């Protein structure tokens, strides 16, 4: 398995180059977004960027941002100038699956409000159709979760409650996650509507029509994709 870390970092640096002083910045979650947060922190510490306010998409990113010296504020109704985040699948039209790290709800809340969503990833995340590689995370409420899982199985038969150990995985919002196995080529816009209309579902990891640009790094260099 080749080391993807330098590639993730390279993609992150390309995105951070778009951040300007005075911006309100959505801070993504995950092992790629981490490089972006660290780089923004470095630029703030060196004085290259000033008056940056970060809005974090998870408790982990909030903690990291503070650690690297960023000012972090909660999400409020003001728009963000830019958000930088990783993804689990990137389709050619920049539709995404996100949430394998469990942060999909806060990510969607934050990134819907951003003027620009920039995705950073290594080339392993590229797919020709959504559902090819990653499961689709669906955040569900804990109360009656077994009933919600049954309802979800009627819609997407393949899938399971995320349970890494003895207990189900719990999100920052105190919810559970159902990881659905999609059939590539299915109508994902219709699926999104159906899942969002399902009792017990809080949010899905489908990010459709949200990303403006993606920096995708491979051993041949960084590819810049636009919608
Ligand atoms: O919940 C997690 C987020 O959606 C991440 O952005 C996504 O899982 C990609 O993470 P990584 O950069 O670690 O592959």
Structure commentary:
The protein is of the alpha/beta class. It has 2 domains: 5-127 and 208-219, Rossmann fold (3-Layer(aba) Sandwich); 136-203, ACT domain (Alpha-Beta Plaits, 2-Layer Sandwich). Helices cover 28% and strands 24% of the residues. The strands form 3 sheets. Strands 3-2-1-4-7-13-14 form a 7-stranded mixed sheet, with helices on both faces. Strand 13 (213-218) and strand 14 (221-226) form a beta hairpin. Helix 1 (5-16) packs across helix 2 (33-46). The chain is globular and about 55 Å long. The mean pLDDT is 97. The structure holds ribose-5-phosphate. The site of ribose-5-phosphate (R5P) has 18 residues, from helix 4. Residues 28-33, 85-88, 98-104, 107 line the site of ribose-5-phosphate (R5P).
In short:
By secondary structure, this protein is an alpha/beta fold.
Structural descriptors:
6 helices, Ribose-5-phosphate isomerase A, EC 5.3.1.6, binds ribose-5-phosphate, Alpha-Beta Plaits, four-stranded antiparallel sheet, seven-stranded mixed sheet, 14 strands, Rossmann fold, alpha/beta, 227 residues
């Amino acid at each position: 398995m080749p080391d993807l870390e330098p590639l993730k970092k390279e993609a992150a640096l390309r995105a951070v180059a778009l951040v300007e002083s005075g911006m309100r910045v959505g801070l993504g979650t995950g092992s790629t977004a981490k490089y972006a947060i660290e780089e923004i922190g470095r630029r703030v510490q060196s004085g290259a960027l000033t008056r940056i306010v970060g809005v974090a998409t998870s408790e982990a990113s909030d903690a990291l941002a503070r650690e690297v010296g960023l000012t972090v504020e909660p999400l409020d109704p003001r728009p963000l100038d830019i958000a930088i985040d990783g993804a689990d699948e990137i389709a050619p039209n920049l539709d995404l699956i996100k949430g394998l790290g469990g942060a999909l709800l806060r990510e969607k809340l934050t990134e819907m409000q951003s003027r620009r969503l920039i995705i950073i990833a290594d080339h392993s995340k590229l797919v020709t159709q959504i559902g090819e590689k990653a499961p689709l995370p669906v955040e569900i409420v804990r109360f009656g979760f077994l009933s919600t899982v049954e309802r979800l199985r009627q819609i997407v038969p393949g899938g399971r409650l995320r349970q890494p150990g003895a207990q189900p995985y719990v999100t920052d919002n105190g919810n559970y996650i159902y990881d659905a196995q999609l059939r590539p080529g299915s109508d994902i816009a219709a699926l999104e509507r159906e899942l969002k209309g399902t009792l017990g579902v809080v949010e899905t990891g489908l990010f459709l029509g949200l990303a403006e640009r993606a920096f995708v790094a491979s051993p041949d260099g960084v590819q810049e994709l636009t919608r």
